[in-house]
Write a sequence for this structure.
């Protein structure tokens, strides 16, 4: 009764709560003013975002067409000079490759692996154990990449590290490498740490998505005699498609912004073999003080994330499954 | 219901099912060990001395002495913790307030040009700190905020508002419109409607947003390193890297510092896990 009554009165209030004597026009003007005045709710976000997020991104492209002299501080316009230098920079290409390897491996483990793991956890009957595994696997994601990076720096270390010791104990001693010290393994050692750190987060998100699937669908499938593996393939996978798309997007864009773990574990070394775009921006922009060139490398990161975003938009547009 | 299927398929299936369950469980346990053991190793190494760390990496510490933890705390970790706390709390309050206002404006007012503002705010999700880094440094040098806590508070807020707004908006959009109408009839202004009606109803998602922001701000590295590394006040992640560079021979102390840095956030996570998961469930996937 309340709902119906209030809706009728509410409508009247919305049009303009004016006395019969005041003109209709004045009421409308006041309403328009009131609507514009509600801009105050979003003003803070708009100002902060335009000032500190959008403007710097535009500015980055402007800076990338300049070259500043380290000694005099003079800024000169060089057009696309920094970009043509980019094409001939071997480290940029190897950094791009490292970012791509990061993206591919992370999608395999943190999206597909996490999906399967979430499916296994959610198939457990006891609520306590479901919560236990989800929480345990999440713990590394709560800890900073600086701590986990340093931790794995020690784990990979030949003298005190436990990885080499475990490998020796299990008869894999012949495969031991100078994990972070070799040009061939450094980036993969870092990526491995990143999987350890991040898979619990996506597992938790997938578990949440699976919980949102109505239980009747699974019950119906069970009555029809459909086994657990088939249930995952034919029910869980299609019905969590939106989450999968979102996770792939987040994982790939994250892979192109990698910085922290590389900085802490190798600093890009040895011999720039484990540089990623983020650390190369830092190296060129702040260590070499070449802002223009650093900004040009940052533009590559921008293009990569935008392309991923566009691909995701295309993927979600292909229709969504709903229930 | 399931009993219908059981006699039909026979006992052979239940045997494979038991084997399957055992395999799955042992997989979960092994993965659990891979996750938990390194963390345990880190905390235990904080109790050892260097000789023990090198000599017997797998053994328990000979005696539990807090000396390394105390030394790490006194060698700078205390000031890192204070800075981290300050930055995390201030930026958390700013982010959640601004995001809740924005979500309110976008879902519960007749704001003109809403789709445009929504696109502007959510578009921020795709923009990364790396790309804005160099211009931001120049900007903050110009503003005189370079090497200060303010830089981090502003930047953490600016870069987290899109995500936080996205979560709160998804929650707010589902609150029934009758709430606003009833409040308006009772003579509530827009502000009263926000503070007294809508915001209290969004409590679950607000709590999740606070937790997510704490996880982010406590652990953030790239801004913290670039914007405060030259000053005395650094946050924990950057401070740890500094400690590592300075005391790289005293591993035990570094391990202790790492544990001090990791412990609060793990405790926060376990204490608030329930809200965290519920908030994510309600915020994401809509």
């Amino acid at each position: 009764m309340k709902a119906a009554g209030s809706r009728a009165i509410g409508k009247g209030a919305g049009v303009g709560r004016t006395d019969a004597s005041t003109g209709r026009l004045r009421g409308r003007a006041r309403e328009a003013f009131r609507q514009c005045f509600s801009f105050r709710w979003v003003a803070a976000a708009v100002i902060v975002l335009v000032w500190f997020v959008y403007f710097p991104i535009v500015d980055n492209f402007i800076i990338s067409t300049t070259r500043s002299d380290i000694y005099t501080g003079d800024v000169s316009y060089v057009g696309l000079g920094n970009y043509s230098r980019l094409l001939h920079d071997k480290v940029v290409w190897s950094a791009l490759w490292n970012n791509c390897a990061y993206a591919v491996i992370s999608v395999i483990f943190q999206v597909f692996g996490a999906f399967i793991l979430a499916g296994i956890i959610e198939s457990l009957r006891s609520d306590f154990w479901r919560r236990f595994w989800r929480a345990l696997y999440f713990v590394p994601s709560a800890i900073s990449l600086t701590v986990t990076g340093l931790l794995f720096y020690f784990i990979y270390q030949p003298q005190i590290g436990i990885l080499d010791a475990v490998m020796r104990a299990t008869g894999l001693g012949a495969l031991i490498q100078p994990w972070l010290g070799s040009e061939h393994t450094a980036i993969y050692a870092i990526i491995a740490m990143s999987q350890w750190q991040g898979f619990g987060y996506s597992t938790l998100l997938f578990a949440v998505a699976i919980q949102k699937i109505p239980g009747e669908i699974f019950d119906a499938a069970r009555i029809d005699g459909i086994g657990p593996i088939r249930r995952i393939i034919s029910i869980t996978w299609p019905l969590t498609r939106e989450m999968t798309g979102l996770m792939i997007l987040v994982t790939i864009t994250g892979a192109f912004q990698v910085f922290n773990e590389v900085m802490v574990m190798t600093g890009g070394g040895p011999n720039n073999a484990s540089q990623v775009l983020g650390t190369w921006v830092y190296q060129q922009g702040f260590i070499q003080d070449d802002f223009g060139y650093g900004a040009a490398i940052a533009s590559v990161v921008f293009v990569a994330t935008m392309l991923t975003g566009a691909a995701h938009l295309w993927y979600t547009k292909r229709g969504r499954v709903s229930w | 219901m399931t009993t219908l299927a059981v006699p039909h398929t026979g006992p052979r299936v239940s045997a494979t099912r038991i084997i399957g369950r055992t395999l799955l469980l042992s997989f979960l346990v092994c993965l659990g060990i891979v996750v938990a053991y390194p963390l345990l190793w880190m905390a235990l190494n904080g109790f050892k001395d260097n000789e023990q760390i090198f000599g017997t990496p797998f053994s328990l510490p000979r005696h539990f002495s807090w000396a390394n933890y105390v030394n790490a705390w006194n060698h700078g970790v205390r000031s890192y913790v204070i800075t981290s706390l300050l930055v995390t709390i201030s930026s958390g309050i700013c982010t959640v307030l601004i995001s809740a206002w924005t979500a309110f404006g976008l879902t519960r007012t007749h704001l003109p040009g809403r789709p445009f503002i929504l696109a502007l705010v959510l578009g921020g999700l795709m923009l990364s700190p790396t790309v804005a880094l160099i211009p931001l440094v120049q900007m903050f040098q110009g503003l005189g905020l370079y090497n200060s806590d303010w830089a981090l508070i502003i930047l953490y807020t600016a870069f987290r508002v899109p995500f936080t707004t996205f979560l709160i908006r998804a929650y707010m959009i589902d609150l029934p419109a009758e709430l606003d109408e009833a409040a308006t009839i009772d003579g509530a202004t827009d502000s009263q409607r926000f503070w007294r009606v809508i915001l209290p109803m969004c409590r679950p998602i607000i709590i999740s947003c606070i937790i997510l922001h704490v996880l982010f701000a406590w652990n953030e590295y790239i801004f913290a390193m670039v914007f405060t590394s030259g000053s005395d006040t650094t946050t924990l992640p950057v401070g740890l890297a500094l400690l590592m560079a300075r005391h790289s021979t005293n591993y035990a102390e570094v391990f202790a510092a790492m544990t001090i840095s990791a412990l609060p956030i793990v405790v926060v996570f376990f204490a608030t896990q329930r809200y965290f998961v519920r908030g994510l469930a309600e915020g994401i996937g809509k």
User: Anything to note?
Assistant: Residues 1-10 of chain B have pLDDT under 50 and may be disordered. Residues 247 and 254 of chain B are 7 Å apart (CA to CA).
